[in-house]
Amino acid sequence: MRIVLADDSVLIRAGIREILTSHAHDVIRECEDADELVAAVDELVRAGAAPNMVITDVRMPPRNTDDGLRAAIDLRSRHRDLPVLVLSAYVTGPYVRELLNGPGADGAVGYLLKEKVGRVADFLRAVETVSAGGVVIDPEVVRHVTRADSPQGPLARLTAREREVLAHMAEGHSNAEIATELFLSGAAVSKHVANVFVKLGMPPDEDNRRVKAILAWFEYN
Amino acid sequence: MAQIRIARRVLTECIAAMAFPILLLSILVAPVSAPVVAETDRSRARWCGVETMPLKPSDHSWAQWVVLRLRSRSMWRTDLPVFVTVVLLSALSLLVAFFGFIGAAALVFSPVFWLFGIAAQVGPFTPESVGETLLAMPAGIVLGAVTTTVLTGTSFLRDFLLRAFSRSRDPDLLAKLEELRTSRASLTAAFEFERQRIERDLHDGAQQELVAVVMRLGMLEATAAGAAADRERIVRLARQAQAHAERALERLRDTVRDIHPRELSDLGLIAAVRELAARSPLRVELTSTGDDTQLSSPTATAVYFTVSEALTNISKHAGVGIARIDLRCATTDVHVRVHDDGVGGARIDTGSGLAGLRERMRSVGGNLEIISPPGGGTLVVASAPSQPPW
């Protein structure tokens, strides 16, 4: 894939680039700050060479707050089919919600903790999932926003097992992976997933049900 | 314009009227009771919508505060006169409330008393027929309204006298208060500044290096697990991971040192400043005299960070490679001068590191000044008493 990579730390950029390039991806642009990222992507799109994906840090110059996230949301609002993977040093619910409520509604977004890049296989899978239109949220963030008390809204209708399955879906796992992790049969997982969709009021003909279910999970947790 | 709040005013006057016997007795211990009564009167005024400040600090007990107050001149200027007016006005309220409200009640319920065969006498008026008792009712309402008005007036008179005796026209005191306010605000800002600095140091330092370690280890694992394990690459990745881990520790040590250097608590200010000079990228000429064992810990820390910040500023902005530090510790106070021959023009701006340090010096009873004409080098002078004066 052709990837645009943004991070203000040379060290981190070098690491991520090495991991991506050694697995047959191309880093076509590297950016040091949010403005540069927006300009680079816009320019590539205008030249008809749009990247397949943007991977960006959250905290970057110019303001050193959440500039990377803002840039990602801005780019996505103008290029609807651009997959965005956000890497962050922070486990924060609000950032993820903003990402999901903005561009996340059509999927193809991810939010990972930066050090998860070191889990090379998982990171590459997350890259694949997001570029294929899925949603991947870091398990640690998922745990962080999972309420210990009773769930709200439509989530209250789910059984404990169904909520567990949904949390795994939020982490970007496929049904087969969920089956392995929860020691269930594939058929059982499919049944749970189907129940989640029904209980969250998503008819079978609705597209992108998986993404919508994950959004609901984040919204009501 | 103070709100009127008639109900509250009448209620507080009634309470004052009932408290009159206690107030009368408390004259015997006036110096102790006066501040308490005056402070209570300030609370009363606040409750009735008048802007008054409580003078008792919230973290003081009444006993502590009364002892403090006995030593202050405001006790004689404010508290005692207020106490006297409170006692006198309470006597007035007692008379007004007692006769006014009881009389009003007797008049209003006059027909009821009449039913039970009682002619309720109010002052010179004694009813002699049912008609007269019925006429007494509106008279009672009027008397009640008049009583309420008089009590409300008394309450306003109380406020007026309270304010008249509380006029603090002491400019020195006001200036001091203003200074305390600013210093408190900038101390808070200095703490905030410091916390953000620590957060940034950790984020840009140790955290980045650790992420790099984790990435290298991930690549290492992926390479080692590969079909044709590339030994050279494995060794290179392992070395890189190790180098990053060591750098992460180094950055962490720097951050911890910037929070609080060990030498300062273990070996004292002079040794810590010497270490600071040795670690600085600048060539530092240090002269130190005296004995630093008398310094309180907050004072030593404030001086240490002043020197540290000054050196950092020199290496960042002065454009020279040499700095001079002159540190003098005496039994009663400590002085430090940090001097460079650089570009000068340094200023203590709000929110800058130096502004935070000036507040820090002030918080231990000292001060910090900076002399920095453009082109004429920079001199930072800080001094403080060995022990904070409080």
Which features does this protein show?
heterodimer, A: 221 residues, alpha/beta, 6-stranded parallel sheet, 6 strands, globular, B: 390 residues, alpha+beta, 5-stranded mixed sheet, 9% strand, elongated
Q: What does this entry look like structurally?
A:
- The complex is a heterodimer of chains A (221) and B (390).
- With 221 residues, chain A is an alpha/beta fold.
- Chain A has 10 helices and 6 strands, in the order βαβαβαβαβαβααααα.
- Chain A has a 6-stranded parallel β-sheet with strand order 2-1-3-4-5-6, sandwiched between helices.
- In chain A, helix 5 (120-131) links the parallel strand 5 and strand 6 (135-137).
- Chain B is an alpha+beta fold and 390 residues long.
- In chain B, 66% of the residues lie in helices and 9% in strands.
- In chain B, strands 1-2-3-5-4 form a 5-stranded mixed β-sheet, with helices on one face.
- In chain B, helix 1 (6-18) packs across helix 7, helix 8 crosses helix 13 (353-363) and helix 12 runs antiparallel to helix 13.
- The longest helix of chain B is centred in the middle third of the chain and has 55 residues, at 171-225.
- Chain B is elongated, with a radius of gyration of 37 Å.
- The mean pLDDT of chain B is 86.
- The chains are: A alpha/beta (221), B alpha+beta (390).
- The interface between A and B is medium-sized, with 18 and 18 residues.
Q: How big is the Rg of chain B?
A: 37 Å
Looking at how many chains there are and whether they match, the oligomeric state comes to heterodimer
Helix content of chain B: 55-70%
Calculate the mean pLDDT score of chain A and round it: 88
Number of helices of chain A: 10
Poorly predicted segments of chain B: none
The tally of beta strands of chain B, per DSSP, is: 5
Distance between the termini of chain B: 40 Å
Fraction in helix of chain A: 40-55%
CA-based shape of chain B? elongated
